[in-house]
């Protein structure tokens, strides 16, 4: 078909036609909203570099969860800021740890909300790395046991899904085994299968107080230059029992989202991370872009690239826009 016989503009002539041929749509049912939980009572602290995102104390969670449910956002991703940190990140699997208390509160006060937990040690270690340090290196195999204990403690507190973000080799299999041995075979694993060593996590590290105190994360998170390695990482996680594969960050890695979507038949998630959110907020605050439209276009692009699920700090705002 060539012009003038074929005229693409025929199907763009009004909103009803554009809607008729729209290939991709956003649905709040596929959003996951990250939440930061902190110690104390009555706390609601806005994160300076992430306007509209708050650190909440446990008693504030029910209200937040109900607000999400009312908007059709049914899934939360929990991060915890503990009272105390130590070298081994023992607060991550404490029975009465901040995340465990948050899960119990949420499942008690708003049972319909689905709680996924981030499984990682960096918020709980005094050195800020995602694993324990042995001879000045982040030790892979010694970390696995702690991660499995952490995931199990989340499931025991009532978590609906666990999401390991540490990037240690073999952690998905270790966590799956620990869950299955303890009758949690119904708790899925959303693996941060392909997580890059990215500068886009900057604002998050302020939010969760988890910047590494020495060195960086390049010995465990992936090199942004690699795509074939992403497929190898994802293949390992599939073999170890992952239920959902995540790519992170999202917008600078849409080719990776597409590559995973083409190669695997598991649901694909993409994490629209803190830096991506902060950049839109900052430009909008200067009046340089239309925030609502840039938000919607960004999330749509992530879906179009192949993400079934989007983890985003914009979940509530986008859900509100979708209702209009
Ligand atoms: C913990 C973790 C990080 C993020 C999610 N889980 C930080 C990191 O790896 O440094 C980043 C999320 C975001 O930037 O929004 N390992």
What layout of secondary structure does this protein have?
Blueprint: H1 15-20, E1 31-38, E2 44-47, E3 50-57, H2 61-70, E4 75-80, H3 98-109, E5 114-119, E6 133-134, E7 137-138, H4 140-157, E8 161-164, H5 171-181, E9 190-195, H6 202-207, H7 228-240, E10 244-248, H8 254-263, E11 268-272, H9 274-285, H10 291-305, E12 309-312, H11 315-323
Parallel strand pairs: 1-3, 1-4, 1-12, 4-5, 5-8, 9-10, 10-11, 11-12
Antiparallel strand pairs: 2-3, 6-7
Helix pairs in contact: 3-4, 4-5
The structure holds ligand PBG.
**What is the CATH superfamily?**
Aldolase class I
Measured distance between first and last alpha carbons? 38 Å
- Counted beta strands: 12
Low-pLDDT stretches: none
Look at the structure and give the CATH class.
Alpha Beta
Any idea of the CATH topology?
Answer: TIM Barrel
Bound molecules: ligand PBG
Please estimate the helix content: 25-40%
Cα radius of gyration in angstroms? 20 Å
Strand content: 15-25%
Shape: globular
The biggest sheet, with number of strands, parallel, antiparallel or mixed sense and barrel status, is: 10 strands, mixed
């Amino acid at each position: 078909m060539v012009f003038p016989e074929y005229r693409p503009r025929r199907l763009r002539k009004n909103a009803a036609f554009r809607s008729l041929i729209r290939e991709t749509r956003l649905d709040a049912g596929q959003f996951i909203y990250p939440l930061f939980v902190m110690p104390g009572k009555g706390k609601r602290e806005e994160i300076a570099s992430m306007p509209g995102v708050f650190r909440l104390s446990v008693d504030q969670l029910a209200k937040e969860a109900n607000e999400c449910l009312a908007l059709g956002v049914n899934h939360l991703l929990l991060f915890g800021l503990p009272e105390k940190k130590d070298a081994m990140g023992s607060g991550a699997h404490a029975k009465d740890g901040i995340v465990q208390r948050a899960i119990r509160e949420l499942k008690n006060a708003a049972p319909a909300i689905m709680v996924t937990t981030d499984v990682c040690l960096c918020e709980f270690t005094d050195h800020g790395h995602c694993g324990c340090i042995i001879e000045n290196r982040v030790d892979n195999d010694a970390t696995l046991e702690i991660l499995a204990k952490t995931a199990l403690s989340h499931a025991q507190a009532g978590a609906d899904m666990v999401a390991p973000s540490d990037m240690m080799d073999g952690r998905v299999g270790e966590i799956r085994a620990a869950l299955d041995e303890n009758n949690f075979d119904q708790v899925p694993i959303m693996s941060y299968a392909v997580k890059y060593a990215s500068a886009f996590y900057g604002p998050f590290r302020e939010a969760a107080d988890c910047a590494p105190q020495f060195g960086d994360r390049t010995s465990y998170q992936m090199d942004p230059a690699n795509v074939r390695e992403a497929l190898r990482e994802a293949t390992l996680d599939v073999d170890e029992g992952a239920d959902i594969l995540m790519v992170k960050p999202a917008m600078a890695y849409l080719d990776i989202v597409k590559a995973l979507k083409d190669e695997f038949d598991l649901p694909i998630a993409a994490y629209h991370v803190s830096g991506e959110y902060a950049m839109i907020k900052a430009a909008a605050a200067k009046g340089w872009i239309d925030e609502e439209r840039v938000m919607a276009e960004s999330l749509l692009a992530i879906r179009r690239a192949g993400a079934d699920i989007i983890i985003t700090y914009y979940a509530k705002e986008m859900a509100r826009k979708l209702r209009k």
